[in-house]
Design brief:
It comes from Desulfofundulus thermobenzoicus. Pfam families: Complex1_49kDa (PF00346). By secondary structure, this protein is α+β, with helices and mostly antiparallel strands. The chain has one domain: Cytochrome-c3 Hydrogenase, chain B (Orthogonal Bundle), CATH 1.10.645. Helix content is about 45%, strand content about 10%. The strands form three sheets. It has a three-stranded antiparallel β-sheet with strand order 1-2-3. Strands 6-7-8 form a three-stranded antiparallel β-sheet. A two-stranded antiparallel ribbon has the order 4-5. Strand 7 and strand 8 form a beta hairpin. The longest helix is centred in the N-terminal third of the chain and has 30 residues.
Amino acid sequence: MKTQTYVLNMGPQHPSTHGVFRIILELDGEVVVKATSVPGYLHRGIEKLAEARTYTQVIPYTDRMDYLASMLMNWGYVAAVEKLMGIEVPERAEYIRVIVGELSRIASHLVAIGTYSMDIGGVTGVFYPFRERERILDLLEMVSGSRMTFSYFRIGGVADDLPPEFFPMLEQFLRDFPSCCDEYDGLITGNEIFQARTKYVGIIDPQTGINYSLSGPTLRGSGVPYDLRKVRPYSVYDRFDFEVPLGKNGDCFDRFVCRIKEMRQSVRIIRQAVEGLPEGPILAKIPKVIKPPAGEAYAEIESSKGVFGAYVVSDGSPKPYRVHFRRPSFINLGYLGELLVGWKIADVIAILGSIDIVLGEVDC
């Protein structure tokens, strides 16, 4: 006997849709028959705004894209402008970028695992990661003067050097953090209810992940060893020894575990960057009025969500003719509609949370 399907709107007000995101679910009982993603409620318009701003004025707008990893958004954009102008960034600035960039990656992953625990129903799990995130924000505030949208990167380097008091606080954090990851594993990862909700749920096979251009932990959770810091090293990442964590089954659980393991690797990278931090300038010699030659450039970095790219077109004026961003949250959502089919309503929350989207980046 054929049953009648019905439509359920999940979001944009639903807390588990992480801000302003809507999924139109067609359901047969509790089973998803069809899912349609409806982004666009945030109305950012950053790419268009960039056409009316100078190249430097665009930097604060990138902060507001993935606002959980602002430093990494800054990095992707300035890297494209530097490529367009042929600017060589000083070594000290490159090392500082790695330090603050990896701290941002950890801070972003902490929000991901904390909110994911809460999405699944484990409310206690959100408090522990946010405890460490506050310490990272203290460090980044010390460097940039801001606590969330930093605007710290500059075309040709960074805005300011690391203050002396930064290093003792950072060292203390690096000593404490591995045991904090052990706590997350004990509280969340090893929880049998959490595992029941996430293991073998929302499986993405490796070839499908590649075909849909997925990236970051969403792709690496399926066992695909694609991390720009390894496969196409930028900045000074080729000087550091670290591993790329991979999943086995491509399910929600593997994507979660990958993020915890990546935070451990970020600690390794930061330690090496601090030990090898050279002396020297933090900003290349660039003109006061930045007017790149007419042309175009594309640069990409490995953000906390995946591959973040910036495409910049110059017509020779002080303002970009066109700016376009490859946003990993937006790209990773491209497979969500197919991924949800066949799962139940409760699984929709687990699957969406495992992708770890930020709507500021989706709707830019």
